[in-house]
Every structure is written in structure tokens, then in C-alpha cells.
Amino acid sequence: MTDKKIAVLCGGDGKEREVSLRSGAAVHEALKDSGFNAEIIDLRSMDDINIIKDFAAVFIAMHGDWGEGGQLQAKLDEMKIPYTGSGAEASSNAMNKWQARKLFARENLNMPEGLLLPADYDEIIAKLGRDVVVKPCSGGSTVGITIIHDLTPQKLEDAIQIARENYDSSVMIEKYINGRELTCAVWERDGKIEALPVIEIVPHTGYYDYKNKYTAGATEYIVPAEIDEQARKSISDMAVKAHKVLGCEEYSRADFRLTPENKAFILEVNTAPGMTATSLVPKAAKAAGVGMSDFVKFIMNEAINNAANRK
Question: Has this prediction a pTM greater than 0.85?
């Protein structure tokens, strides 16, 4: 396939456009280093999808919205063009955080308690307490998320408005879990789903918001995370189970909180995680002895082989 044209799809028209463009540039460079005939395509709209009709395969470096939520994947299936990452249904399930929670519950994965709006203020206090996280049900990169300590009706109203300004009207509220922030990527290799090394995320100020995610030097990453074997195994096992129950393919990344009592809570799964210089999946792969070019080459080849096997 190195002589065939590979499209690196990135950009989009959503809140994560700039990050997607950076992921696309990093993936493009890695594919070129691996000998692929790759081309960056800034796909601003699904209306422009026919621009890739003559490409042999696609590496998806889209984040959020229709590029990660299943619409793009469904169209590529229709066009019979192989692509990296999860299929349409799994992408949709992971993008909708409330739907993902329902699937996580099937595997008894430990999650923060949560409510879907509309929910009564008194009900929120009774079930979740006064420290909560308000987030849109869709989207990523921490866009639209508000962490609230000592909840009041006004704080809640403001946070809901921020969530709805950034994505659709579906908003969920979760109990805030005090603890360390960790993430665990998984990949499918030799017919098995394997967890990559767990990473601890330590922002120098505040929490791991959009700015701290994508500003070089704003966050420290401890790879592998300095946690005990019990916590590492719990997080790794949950990441693998979440990948399976959502129906993900090839690779994904799950985010966690770990309490001082060493109890891990899964928050969400990313089916098209960032691939920029500061992104977590490349860091985890590197810690496992797999460089960026080799990792991207592996994922691209898996996508092509999986598509061939389905025919």
C-alpha cells in the first residue's frame, strides 16, 4: 500500500479544528517517514467528502463533531474506503458520553455517579453533592466542561449555558472525583487488545483544560504513571473492557480519575485521540518502545488489512 494514495483527514468545522489540523500534520509526517504516499486533506464539511473518492485509504485525524462521532465513518463505509479507528456505531457510542455510560454499566465499570438534564437542582445535590462536573454529552478536548465546587443554582445555570454554547443541548452532570488524572491507551495487536503504559497528567496550574492540553510545557506527563500495580491493573483492565463494550477497533484511549484511596473511575473513551506533539497516545506508544512513525504505520496497515478481511 505504500504506493497507493493515503488521505489524512483533519480540520473539520468544530471547536477542535485547530487541534485536528495539528494531529493531521503529525500523522502526515509519520506516514511519509514510513514510506506512505500520504496527503493532508482539510475536510471542512461532509459536503466535500468526494474529494477523497480516488484515495485508497484514510487516516482519520478528526476530533469531535461529525468527524469523530460516526457520520464520517458511515460515509466512508458507504464509499468502501478503508479508514483507521473505530466504525460508525462505536464512534457514535463513544462520542455520546451518556450512551457510553450505559454500555460501561454492562461491564460494571466504575464510573462517577451522574445525571442527565433536565434534573432538579435538589436531586443533583442529593445524588451528586456540591462538587460536580458539568459537560456536554458530545465533544472532546475538555471544550464546554465546567468543574464546580460548592454548587449553587447560578453556578449550575452558567455551566449549562457554557456546555450548550459549545455543543448540542444534551448536558450531563457527574460527581466530581477528587484525585489524580490518568489515561490509558489500548491497541489491537495479533488479535489481542493490549493496554499501553498508563500516563499521569499533572497540569502546572488548574485542571487539564483545552489550554493545558495543547500548550507546550503547560502540563507534566509522567510515563509510566507512578502508581501501584493494583491501580495500574485496574485502569488497564477497564480501558480494555471499555474498548470492547463500545465496539472500538484498532486503538482508543480512556480517561480516568484515581482517588487517594486508590479507586479508579473511568470518565470517557476517545476513538480518534489526538496525535499532536503533546498528545497522549504517542507518549504511551513511545513508553512501550514504539515510535510515532511505527505506531502510525501499524494503525494504517491494520485499517487496510481489516477492511480487506471484511470483503
Answer: yes
